[in-house]
Amino acid sequence: MPGLTGIIKEQGNTPDIEQLLPKMCEIIKYEDWYKTDTFLDKTIGMGRVSLGILNPETQPIFNENKNLCIMMEGEIYDYRDLKEDLISKGHTFLVNNDPEFILHFYEEYKSDFAEKVKELNGIFLFAIYDCNSHELIICNDRYGLKPLYLCKRDNYLLFSSEIKAILQDQSIKREVNLEAMTEFFSFGYVLGDKTLMEGIKLLPPASVFTYSNAKSEIKKYWSWNEIKKIDVINEEKIVDELGRLWLQAVERRMQGNGKIGAFLSGGLDSRAIVSAIDSKYLPIHTLTFGKKDCDDYTIAKRVSETLKTKHHFVEITAERWFSGIEKTVWITEGFLNVIHQHTWDAVDRMKENSDINLNGFAGDLVVGGSYLSKDFVNIKNIEDYLNNVFLKMNKGYIGSTCGKEIYNSHMSEILCTSSRNSIEKWIKQEIKTSQDSDYFFLNNRVRRFTIMGTVSAQTKLENRKPFYDNDFIEFVYSLPNELRSNSYIYNKMLIKFFPATFKFIPWQKTGMPISAPKNIAKGYRLYRGCKSLTNSLLRKISLSPMFKDNTNYVDYNNWMRNNKELRKYIYDTLLSEKSMNRGYFNSEFLKKLIDDHMKGKKSHAQIIGLFLTFELFNRMFIDGEKL
Question: Which domain of life is it from (predicted)?
Fold first, then answer.
């Protein structure tokens, strides 16, 4: 993913910035048409590699006195009043873009910047350098959705939006972080600010990071706990306010440069975005990807016809998915299981008509309450919350499926105990009451897993995320959890504001419109579940499925079984001498796990995907191979 990269050091110390910075920029430049800006001074080198769509003007941008400069990735919204206030205080704007505004905003409020920056609404990452004091300030948005990795050395600091740029410093020892590895296999993603690389960390969300004289400091300027819960509940007024704020969030993201499009699925969130676009911007291009005849395409096509968008479809096949595996592991740096990396062809197709994708990112969690099951809503204490989180996160991964057997004997005790410890440590630091139940998933699953699904897309398209509008977020999280659970208040808003696309068109998850009576929707879910169970039982006795399954837009389980080239690749990669010599896994148990899957006895695509991702990560980032 393009972004910022750089080095700051004490004068005279290694490394050679003039040699290292170009390598750092080049390694994250995936396309020849990217725009690269650099800044070099005696003790610092900074680079920005961008798509040239948002804030396309050359960076860095300086203030009037030339003593401060800024490089920025991302964007902010609706700051006209703040800018006019700065003008009234004597600030002069020449470029009139987001980074120039932020630079003057910092200059004016430097002493209490950590308090003022929370007023900025957007998804961003910026680095400000003080040419006089040689101080570097790096700041990200409230939610940490523009990743930045940090590597502190004895007398210098490396930072970058991608780990591979940091690894251009050949003095860095390439080692796997075992705690992060355990989390990856236990939960499908890494927690907190760890990475799979020892010695490299992720900048926490809502951070003002300062580096000066080889010392660093991080100030947290905002937290989810600052959002106050409302006391008075009037559902009709809540629905109206939710709808107003949603329309505002989408409208804000229709502004500025670039041609806007949207991926459109059979879910609620992408549909909510396209439904909220003012008619003056229509028609836009929309695109659905998936298996031929999948429910996502059928439903999205109906939505497109209703809203009169220019709709496209990209079929995902085993061959297409397999052809992009190594490329997407390289781009996502081992953080995302390969079975979730299926958008490459779709991104290329979307790029033909759009520069910016309006993304339904995390809408199901933010306003749909997808992690607010009864077990979470009714929690009375933090210990119960911890137990529920651990059980939910373990489901379907190594901890619940394989246990200690998958690891080599000398690794099992170390690895199998640390995953729960990681969750417990984070929760006891960050979660104050059971009402904060979503915050763990927002700071971990969303920021460490869900975000990686957009990273490969961001090599071609800018992504705007309306569900992460500050005003919308603050209102949604002021509501009692009961209103968000099971999409209750979300569904009410969607039906009232967008009846044409929600009242009668089904939801892919249930097969029924969200307006359907609960008993009918429940009965239909039961019917679909029975069909799925029947197919599963038939496979176990080596018979063909009875029912065609269109509910899922991918079919990794059968793709791994039926595609000969992919099947061979899995065996050759995971059971290779190179893989087994790493000493992490029990080769006999791993072979049995793969065999059981290939014979249809079990469905282990999720876990096989984790092993495949981790092995490819090792080859690329630990061994330094070019695949």
Answer: Archaea
Report pTM.
0.95
Distance CA 253, CA 464 (A): 7
Strand 61-62 relative to strand 285-290, pairing: unpaired
Q: Provide the pLDDT for residue 415.
A: 62
Q: What's the whole-number average pLDDT of the chain?
A: 92
* Rounded distance between C-alpha atoms, residue 540 and residue 557, angstroms: 13
Rounded-to-integer distance, Cα 608 and Cα 557, Å: 10
Whether 98 has a binding-site annotation, put simply, is yes
Q: Cα-flanking dihedrals φ and ψ of residue 38, to 5°?
A: -135, 155
Give the H/E segment covering residue 262: strand 260-263
Look at residue 547 and tell me whether its pLDDT is greater than 90. no
DSSP 622: I
Q: Total structural domains in the chain?
A: 4
Query: Do residues 204 and 352 both lie within one domain?
Result: no
Check whether residue 454 and residue 431 sit in a common domain.
no
> Tokens at residue 216, please?
């660093």
The region that residue 183 occupies, defined by phi over 0 for left and psi between -120 and 50 for alpha, beta otherwise, is: alpha
Beta strands in 18-78 (DSSP E): 35-40, 44-50, 61-62, 68-77
Distance CA 437, CA 587 (A): 38
Of the listed ranges 192-196, 413-417, 531-535, the least confidently predicted one is 413-417
Number of separate helices (H) and strands (E) present in the chain = 29, 17
| Residue pLDDT, tens place only, 305-362 | 999 999 999 999 999 999 999 999 999 999 999 999 988 889 999 999 999 999 999 9
Contact 431, 440 (CB under 8 A): yes
Q: What is the pLDDT of residue 424?
A: 79
Tell whether 106 and 197 lie within a shared domain: yes
Give the pLDDT band of residue 8 (cuts 50, 70, 90).
Answer: very high
Domain hosting 456: range is: 235-367+447-508
Give domain status of residue 90, yes or no: yes
Residues 338 and 390 in one domain: no
Establish if 541 belongs to a structural domain: no
Looking at the fold, whether 254 and 298 belong to one and the same domain comes out as: yes
The DSSP annotation for 369-427 comes to: -TT--HHHHT--SHHHHHHHHHHHHHTTSHHHHTGGGGB-HHHHHHHHHHHHHHHHHHH
Answer whether residue 583 is part of any domain. yes
Please indicate, yes or no, if residue 23 is contained in any of the structural domains: yes
CA-wise closest residue to 79 among 113, 57, 104: 104
Average confidence (pLDDT) over 552-565: 95
Confidence of residue 459 (pLDDT cuts 50, 70, 90): very high
